[in-house]
Amino acid sequence: MTADQLKAWREKHRLTQVQAADALGVALITIKNWEAGRNAVSGPAAYLCAVADKIGVPALGDITQGETA
Fold first, then answer.
1. What span is annotated as the signal peptide, if there is one (predicted)?
2. Where are the beta strands (DSSP E) in the chain?
């Protein structure tokens, strides 16, 4: 996932950088670095973005925060 793809994903779901960081279970600086292209979005975070597109961001937050239904 590229920096532009991450930003487009975040904007598609109407998330701030803080909200995206919370949903993905990463630090805010990580989101900022990804969107600036300083680090690549890969592995679990890229996978979680794809999952969020399928199940929705609120449900993703439940998963990354360890909550169960």
1. none
2. none
Q: Give the tokens for residue 23.
A: 């949903």
Around Cβ 6, how many Cβ atoms within 10 Å?
21
> Which one, of 36, 42, 50, 45, lies nearest residue 3 by Cα?
36
HSE (CB half, 13 Å, CA atoms) of 29? Answer: 0
Fold held by 3-64: 434 Repressor (Amino-terminal Domain) (1.10.260)
Whole-Å CA distances, 41 to 33, 36, 44, 69: 9, 11, 9, 28
* pLDDT tens profile 20-54: 888 888 899 999 999 999 988 878 887 777 777 77
